[in-house]
Each structure stands twice: as structure tokens, then as C-alpha cells.
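Task: complex structure prediction.
Instruction: return C-alpha cells for all chains below.
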Amino acid sequence: MIRFILHRLLMAVPTLVIVAITVFALIRFIPGDPAALMLGDMATPDQIAAMRSDLGLDKSMPQQFLVWSGNVLSGDFGHSIVSKEAVLPLVLSRFMVSAEIVVVAVILASLIAVPAGVIAAWRQNSLTDLALVGTATVLLSIPTFWLGLLLLLFFGLKLGWLPVLGYVSIGDNIVGGLLYLVLPIMTLVIHESGVLIRMARASTLEVLRLDYITHARAKGLSEQAVLWKHAFKNAFGPTLTMIGLILGNLLGGIAVIETVFTIPGLGRLMVDSIFQRDYPVIQGCLLLIALSYVVVNLIVDLLYPLFDPRVVAE
Amino acid sequence: MKSLLLAGTILMALTSASVARDIVIAQSSDLRSNNPGVNRDGNTDGVILHIVEGLVGYANNGEVKPLLAQSIAMSADGLTYTFKLRPDVKFHNGKALTADEVVWNWNRYMDPATKWTCIKDFDGSGTVKVTGIQATDAATVVMTLEKPSAVFLGLMSRPECGYTGIIARESLAADGSFDKPIGTGPFQWDAWKKGEYIHLSKFAGYVSPANDGKPDGMVGSKRPLVDGIKFMVIPDASTVKAGLQSGVLDTAEISPDLIPEFEKSEKTKVIISQNNGKNLFYIQTRDPVLSKPGVRRAMAMALDLDELVAAASNGTGKPNGSMVSSDSVYFSDIQKKRLPHDLAAAKKELAASGYKGEPISIIANKRGNVPSFPAAVIAQAMLQQIGLNVQIEVLDYATQVDRRRSGNYQIISQSVAPRLDPALMYSFYTGDKDKNASLMWDNPKAIALMKAAYTEIDGKKRQAIFDEFHELMLEDMPGIFLYDMIDVWGAAKSLKGQPVWQSNARLWEVSFDK
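Output:
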């Protein structure tokens, strides 16, 4: 098992190197000079040139990459061009904010959507199935920013139950922190449930058509036993993969939710940094996101044998 | 679940009762740094404005008046400035302001290690060279210049320079690094939760400079009337709107589209305030098509400015074809002149210039609440009426800045931040394009007039320079000035006072109804 984990982590190295090179180059191809943005509209060309030199942007791109990658290997991700903060603590702190929302949302969405999808498959073509599939389709079709705003207007403005904006860390105030997280988590749960219901339904349907399910039923097992003991375990594999992909995607990709609910997470940091052409922060964010994808997928692979013994890590 | 939520909300309300008299305001981005004039943008300037003060500051009409100074005396040759300090000024840490502190601050700013944004404005690289500074007694500072300058005090008062704010030495940590600003302003530094909010608390020992009981730009009455200010970082306009409507926010900039909704609401009101910033069409005078003054003048005559400004500003702006703001003491009758809206004359001038339908592109952006895009769309329709082949290219702001800096554009629909002295405003547009490709107008006569405006100290002579400059601009039409920028802010009905000045939050003399 340890060999497998090490092997997978080693396989992630080329992925991260490719991500690093691509991100490094692409962000520099986008027009826009961080020095000019930093200094404002009154800056002279001399001042901008001096700032570019200070930031090391006057060097060639390969030189810049070598300096940056050398520093990264020694644990120094550089400093933000805009705020001068060290990149690594900055992106890690923002990542933790995003993670506490995303992890809770994905767990809740899975707890709701997986049983719902299995039930929809079990009751295929019934009114229950139709209702669940219809709801799932509607949920995944709603853009998250719109859904977020609707929830904010309803629960925040109209009912006044939940705070409209702001963020309190759970570490500072548990009750306050949780209240601020309810709406963003609810938005993600609603949206992602739609995806997962459809996935769980499709994979369960596939399994329910197999001979061993017919055999189990012929043995006289109850429908409950057939469904949860025999069908679910085999059907859950693809859904687990999807959960992993959603988790990886959301860990760096909830910028819209973070913007609507004023949450200082990783996605918002990255979007702000792109607008400001804050190269070191963009690079740090994307590397962390790539790494989180690798780790989440590794965890999914390690969990797979628990549900499907045919898949053995070795 | 509902009970839990209600209980939590009540708990939060109780927790926040102790800071209920803070003003809560939204800003679109986080503070860049709390070190005045070092790493800044507009939002940073707005926070710093409340914490630090310089020797001088701008009044509403663009005049520079004493702030930490009680009086300013200029020698007859314009080379020596003597600042007598106010005796009633204390830093937030309780220490009294002295001339030695001012000298220490100036030397710190002029030290390249500080990385002060404005160092080039005073070291001789630009228009001013400060040759010396000295504390002649505990309350007197004397500064000497190499050459007379009309903009020396104005440059010191600029937001970009952190208002050349005087801070206590204790603002620096023992190792010399910057810790936090201990200034003399009406509010003092309290807390910064990065990405979330900045909190300032009231400075109980604050004494305003001489005043007539009213706020006046950066001077006048500056009493802190609330316990503190919470600047919340909220980039999304819809969230700001919800925040204002729910009462979580007390005031914030809003989109002009929301004016009717906010005016009708029982909870909110709209605050509209003109500032010295400019909305204009920045023209590349070296472009093959637009290098002909006739084409540029035809464009100006094709624009119905009254209609364009009314539509682009949602009825809040007034046309102003001058580089000088209509609030300025220098906004004379000559500054009010603009080319007439005359389609026949425009077509005639266009034909005389040999225009043959070449494409003209207007660069616009959709950033924040600036009218770049709507102004470009309306202008496109108006310019097409005289046969101009106009297209719009929408870019993100960073790319737009890049294009302007490199001179790679034909027309940019642009908003320019306020500069209260007309000469400083001119320098954004005028100068040698070979040395600085971002500039708009390199007419040698205009450059000479701008330089004269920098050095001429006499007010009447400066007025004559500005008027001549405007007449020359109408002939040459290097850019088309539309209107002075408008701040449109939403606020709680209970908010008293004017919370915005020159696009920045200004929250002294602002309070709530009981």
C-alpha cells in the first residue's frame, strides 16, 4: 500500500511540473503589466521599468522560471506583487477557508444525492424516479451565482435568518462562523446534488441490470438487501470517482460563490490575482489546486477497494 | 433548525451590539498596505485618509490649505516654505507633533529604501527638487526648493503620496520595518483581517484644523462622530446591494442603475457627488487616421454631449469639455467652451480631412461603475451618423492599461482618477510621446503651457495659462472630455453627512440619526 501511495505521488511530479510550466508561461502571455497596474496611471516609463526590475520581470521568461522553480523547490513560493505577503502562507490560509466549505458541502451533497440516485434507479420510470431526475436536472442547470443570490435574498434579506455578507472564521466564533457558512454550503449542496443524483442513478441502473442481481432476487433476498448489500457497493464506484472530481474541482473553483458571499477563499484570491496580474500568487494558487486534485484522486483510489474488492491497490 | 438559526442570529446581534455605532462600508478590494504612500491603490488611499494627515491638504475647490501646519509662509522668490505647526496636534499614541518628527518623516519618505511612490516628484527627477528641510524650532519646519513651483504643496497633498502623512516614529518596529500607521487623523488603526475587513477606531484626542464647522475636502472640520469604521472587502456589486438593503452596510458605492430603486426604498438613500476625475475619449494622435485634427474635431462635433452624458451617467453628470474640473477655482468661462454639436459641420470637416471609411476602434472596459462601456456604445452610434466606421473593443482593465502604456490604440473610453490641481491633471495627458507612449497630446505649445503651469505661482497668471491651454485643446482636440466623474453611493436613511469625497470614503463628520 505504501509503495502504491509513493508510486502515485511520484507520478504526480510530472503533472505538477507541466502545470507549473504551463501556468508560468500562460499568465505571462496575457497582456497586462503588473508593474504598471501597481504604480497607477501617473507612473512614468522609468518608474515602471524600475519596478519591473525590482520584481525581476525584466529578465527573460526562462530565467524567471528557473529562479522561481528553484525557490519553490526550497519551499519559497515568493511574495505577492500586490500585498507583498509570502505566497505559501497566503494561499494555504485561503485554501483552508475554501476547504471547510467545500468538504462539508460535498459530504452533505453525497449523503443526500447518493441514496436519492439509488432510489431513483430502484424505482426506475416511476413517479419517484421522474421527480428525482427532474429535480436533479433543474438543480444542476441553475447557475451557482444566481442560486446563491436567490438564497441570499430569501434567507438573508427577506427572512433575515442568516447574515447577508461577511465572514467569521469558525476558529474565532463557532456559532457565528457556522451561520456565515450556511448559505454558501447550501448553494453548493443544492447544485452538486443534481450532478450526483444523476450519476448515482445511472451507475445503479447499470448494476441492477446485471445477472447477479437477478440471481440475488431469485434466491429470495429482500429488495432492500439486493439494493444496498449487492447493488450499491458495485454501483458506488463511479459515483465515488465523481465525488472525487467534484471535490477537486471545487477546492479551487468556487470563486463565484466566494465572491457572492464575500468569503476570503482560494478561488477569490486567484481571480483577484489574475485581474491584478499578481503572478506569484496565481502560480501558487494553481499549483496548490493541481496538488489537491492529485491528493483527492489518490484518496479516491485508496477508498475504491472498500466498495469494490475486485479493485486491489496492489 | 429554524430555532438554531434564530438563536445564532440573536447571539450574533448581541455580540455585535458593542460596535453598533461603527460605520460599516464596502470597498471592492482589500488594502494593499497600511504604509502610507508605499503600496497603494484607490481603496488603500481611502483607508489611509482617515489615519494620517500631512502638513497641508486639499480643500473642496482644489486649493491647498494648512492641515498639520497652522500657517505656511512662502519667501518672495518662491524657494523657501516655512511651516508653523499647530500646537494642538497629537499622534494616536499620545505623543505631541514636533518639527523634528516632520523632518524625520520627510527624510524617511525621501530614503529610497522606503519605496515612497512619490519620491521622484521631489528629488528633482520630476518638476520639484526639495533641497533641504530643517526644524528651526520645536514648531517650525523650513523646506527649500531648487526652483519655484506652483504644485509643490499640491503634490504633497496627493492621495498617491499617502498625503505625505506624518506618522510617529513608533510606527516602525525595532528592526526598522513598518509596523502600523500611528498618525494624527480622526481615526486610528485597529485591525486588519486580510481579505475580510479593516477596522479603524475613533481617535478621541483628535482636534480639527481651523474650520467653519463644515468638512472641506481634506481640511475643515474633521470630527470623528462614530466609534469606528469597518471597511468590508466586497468585490461583488450584487452583494453590496443586498448588504445595503439589509442594513448590514451603512454606505457603499453603487451602480448608477440602482438610483431609482434606492431612492424609492424606505431603508436607503442615494448620495451623488461630483469629483475632479474625468471621463473622456483618449485619442491616439499618431494614428494614421486620427492624426488629422479635422477627424478629431469632426468626432467632437458629432457627439451630442448633453445626450451622451445624460445617458452614460444615468442623469447624474453634466457635460464638461475641459480638462479642468467644474468644481475647480480655475474653471473660468473660457473653460466652459466646447465645440458645438453640429452634424453638418462635422461631416464637412471629415470630408476635408480625406476620411474614407477607415475603421476606428474604441477600447472600452466594463470595470466597476465607470461609464467606459456605455459611453463608447452611445458614442459609436453618434459617430456613425457622420459616416465614421467605429467599432468597440472590450478589454479587461489590465490589458487596457497595457495598450495605453504602449500607445497601441486609436481611442480609449477612459476614466481618470481625480487630480485637484489642473497642472497635475494635464500631466496625465500631455508630454513627449517619444519618451512616454502613454501620453495623449504632444503639441509643443501645450507642453510649454503645462510646464509654465507647474512653475507659475501667481493665481491670475495660472488662470491665463489654463485658459490658453483649453483654447488650444479645442483647436487640436487630442481627446474628447465628456464629464467630471460622479460618485454614486447608497446609504442607510439614518446616515447623516457626506461619506464620499473625490471617489474616496471620507467618514469624519458622518454620523447616524438617533
